Amino acid sequence: MADLSTNFLGIKSPNPFWLASAPPTDKQVNVLRAFEAGWGGVVWKTLGSQVKNVSSRYSSVDYNGYRIMGLNNIELISDRPLDINLKEIKECIRLFPDRAMIVSLMADNNRESWHELIKQVEDTGAHGLELNFGCPHGMTERGMGAAVGQDPEIAKMVVEWVMEAAHIPVITKLTPNVHSVVPTGRAAVAGGTHALSLINTIQSVTGVDLDTFVPNPNVGGKSTFGGYCGPAVKPIALKFLTTISQDPLTSKVPVSGIGGISTWRDAVEFMLLGATSLQVCTAAMRYGFRIIEDLCEGLNNWMDEKGFATIYDFIGKSVPTLTHWEELDINYHIVANINQDKCIHCGLCYISCEDGSHQAISLSYGKPYNTYAIKEDECVGCNLCKLVCPVDNCITMKEQRHGDEYLNWKEFQRRGLPLNDH
Amino acid sequence: MALRNNRLTNEEYDEHFSDIHPPFETHNAALVEANRCLFCYDAPCTKSCPTSINVPKFIKQITTENLKGAAYTIFSANIMGGGCSKVCPVEKLCEGACVYNLMEEAPIPIAKLQRYATERAIHEKWPLFTRQASNGKKVAVIGAGPAGLSCAHALSREGVEVTIYEKEGKGGGLMTYGIAAYKVTPQFCQEEVDYITSLGGIHVLYNMQLGKDVLLETLQQEYDAVYLAFGVGMARQLAISGEQLNGVVDAIRFIYEIRTKGYPEVPVGESVAVIGLGMTAIDAATQAMRLGAKEVTLVYRRTEAEMPCTAAELNIAKLDGCNIIWLAAPKEIVGENGHVKTLVCEVMRLDERKLPVGTGELISLNVDMVIKATGQLPYTMAAPKIDNEHGRVLINEHAATNLPGVFAGGDCVNGGKEVVDAVQAGKEGAKAILKYLFREVE
Ligand SMILES: Cc1cc2nc3c(=O)[nH]c(=O)nc-3n(C[C@H](O)[C@H](O)[C@H](O)COP(=O)(O)OP(=O)(O)OC[C@H]3O[C@@H](n4cnc5c(N)ncnc54)[C@H](O)[C@@H]3O)c2cc1C
Ligand SMILES: Cc1cc2nc3c(=O)[nH]c(=O)nc-3n(C[C@H](O)[C@H](O)[C@H](O)COP(=O)(O)O)c2cc1C
Ligand code: SF4
Ligand code: SF4
Ligand code: SF4
Asked: Whose CA is nearest to atom 1 of ligand 3?
């Protein structure tokens, strides 16, 4: 049995899975049920000054019968009275002292408001604070949320205000609605934040209703840009996470990974790219808290298989393998190979290579089944056929190096080697 | 014991003859299956459909909720795509070729999806096709069965005026009069015929029999071309003694009555023997059972390896509780007071060429009804001057008979295959006729 316990800046939790700041964490009833189900911690739904929500609030991107590949929301921070939230947070900590309780905050844009809010939250016994610099709707218009996260100078200033008052660990949650998260990440670290978390939601329009012509979600005939999350955003979240893990300054602080985590496999990927704890929102909203069981068991089994005793044995392991394009080995070459015994003759590899790649697959007509084979000389090793093939391990890529030695683009240019030679 | 009708309650009849392949209950159920389709390139399912419906395309169209497009994709290849989705032996056609079979997984339920897309179109009378302006040509079609209707529709789309001569009072051919009642309802057949003819330019003259009410020579004079699609009709005789006894019936006749008279009206025996193991035999046996026979036995000369029906069809009969006697050939039907009492069969064995030969050993079955389903003989006496082979109309590669301007297709040419083959034949016939009509003009 591997040890899943996590120590994030002294905030301990029995496993690295926290519920992200969102509807699942905005009430005592939910949070207690989540703790009973086994979640390691929660980031309480963002507290701030009173807000008012609209309906409808969510819309989704469905794909090929899969519902909620991406979720979009135009919800604001907690719309419940602050004193009730504070009372409930305290009660949850009392009932489950071994779980992480982090409280997300978004105060009005002045030092006093932040100080006042932090004091009130610390009085509950919470273990950490998360600064919401990411909410992309509603709050930005008032100069809060993503408006802070998008401007490193303001972000740094707010973090500094917070650090003046905070006695417990502070995590700064970044917005992905920027070209790069690194500048704000650096600013937050320079301002003194203890940790970073990312990503918050991405501004989006999920789609337009073809009958009403109003984009989703429809609020009485009008819509607005909402925040995108769920499985669809994972690749973007991983990219941002990697840049934070690679940067010399931001890599010094622990990172809580967020964005599209639905399975233990996603979780491992986030950890391999540098996350120490993981936050989940959409998957819990979609399937309920019970997914924690497989998250933990899957992670545990994987760690046992790989021989990792604690999560610290593999966090960040994949970061060094992400490099710049210029560093890649140009002499490395692969070609596709079709296992004719496994092939079901669907022709998907053929047509995608024919129309979308390098016409490197041949077709011999048959009734009803055609035979498909790779023309190795034409194959550029792009992977497309392997990606489209519906049969596991039917198409594999064989290594056929162009040269023994490692040769990157810079060296290639320096030597003046010929371009377009195949 | 004489044959008896009205053996069951109305509820029992309804239950026995309800849809054997029920449709999707919900849109979602259809979507789940449609989304499984891989959208194969040069798809084997399409290649295995005699009418070459672009199966992956119409299935994709279902997933994008383009149901009109899906229906158009189907109908433009097969105007009887609605009926075919209920009666096609898909396990040996499209679904039999689905690549999922090669993964040992259930194939895409193509027919069910096809039904999903077409049934709405037919019920709601979507006008998916328009005619070209009339080109002044007139063609007569004999028979409003699948081949005739398909030919007529294709011709009319191109602006030809079509007149169909049909000897029965309703269209649809064996679809309406022959196919097992638990596959298609008379009401559906009617709707389908109406849908096809709603295109316009197709005039059906019912109760008009070629050879009796109208002659081929007359039609040749009055029309620019004639298409023969009169199917097959006569049951092959067993040529054994006792064949004329009361209680010996021809399967096609038996089924025709089920389709036309209403279940309680059709007499059926207590103990029934069905001779043959083709689709007609299966249909006759299962429907006899469903009409209330106590015992139904299929008698077949060869073994399971040679049977003409598919395994899926045999399973329907088995599930209905029919018995099968392999390697037995009818030798004599013995009667009592003019009515069937015993069917005497000879036990057969297969020789090296897999042909059945008698062993001399006899077995007797006590039955009060014998249904003959040993195949039909195509008939050409409606058009006696047509070249034929054992009654099958002979055509060249352009669907043309030996008489100028006279074309033919469907069961009357192939001797009896499936609806989908007849529809394809009708399409090909129309193409050949158009070529003939317009090349002549030039
Ligand atoms: C018992 C039985 C069950 C079957 N089950 C299936 C099944 O489940 N699935 C399947 O795909 N196929 C099935 N078939 C086969 C299918 O019904 C035929 O292949 C198909 O109907 C042939 O179409 P057709 O247009 O060539 O002929 P038909 O359907 O026979 O149509 C011929 C038409 O011509 C008319 N006609 C005949 N003579 C004249 C004349 N002299 N003048 C004017 N009109 C005339 C007839 O009344 C009829 O309407 C079955 C056949 C039988 C016999
Ligand atoms: C309905 C909804 C409300 C949210 N509210 C907040 C919030 O109040 N504060 C916050 O920091 N993030 C909020 N988020 C963002 C999530 O915490 C999380 O960053 C994002 O959903 C990405 O994770 P996921 O892909 O697992 O959902 C909200 C997300 C959703 C879907
Ligand atoms: S995609 Fe895979 S299964 Fe399909 S034809 Fe190509 S190799 Fe065969
Ligand atoms: S017409 Fe029949 S064979 Fe052709 S695709 Fe449809 S169900 Fe399959
Ligand atoms: S063979 Fe099967 S999976 Fe492929 S296109 Fe046809 S129905 Fe779809």
From this structure: A389
B283 is in which domain, residue-wise?
248-372
**Which residues line ligand 4 at a C-beta cut-off of 6 Å?**
B 49, 51, 53, 55, 78, 81, 84-85, 88, 90, 93-94, 110-111, 114, 420
Give yes or no: residues B118 and B148 share one domain: no
> Exposed (0-12), middle (13-18) or buried (19+): which is B334, by Cβ within 10 Å?
middle
Same domain, A164 and A195: yes
Q: Do B42 and A369 touch (CB under 8 A)?
A: no
Indicate whether A190 pLDDT > 50: yes
pTM for this entry? 0.89
Q: What is the pLDDT of residues B217-244, one digit of tens each?
A: 999 999 999 999 999 876 677 788 999 9
> A387 at the B interface (CB within 8 A)?
no
CATH number, residue A230: 3.20.20.70
- Both A119 and A251 in one domain: the answer is yes
- In order of A203, A278, B1, B284, B294, the CA distances from B369 in angstroms are 76, 76, 10, 12, 12
Q: Which ligand is nearest to the CA of A256?
A: 2
| Host domain of residue A243 | 6-321
Q: Is A344 on the interface with B (CB under 8 A)?
A: yes
Rounded average pLDDT over B385-403: 93
Asked if B45 and A368 come within 8 Å (Cβ–Cβ), the reply is yes
Q: Which residues contact A361 (CB under 8 A, 6 or more apart)?
A: A336, A349, A350, A353, A354, A372, A373, A374, A375, A385
pLDDT digits (tens, 9 = 90+) for B164-212: 999 999 999 999 998 988 899 989 999 999 999 999 999 999 999 999 9
The residues of A assigned a catalytic role are: 135
DSSP state, residue B101: G
The answer, for B41 touching chain A at a CB cutoff of 8 Å, is: yes
pLDDT tens string A24-61: 999 999 999 999 999 999 999 999 987 889 999 999 99
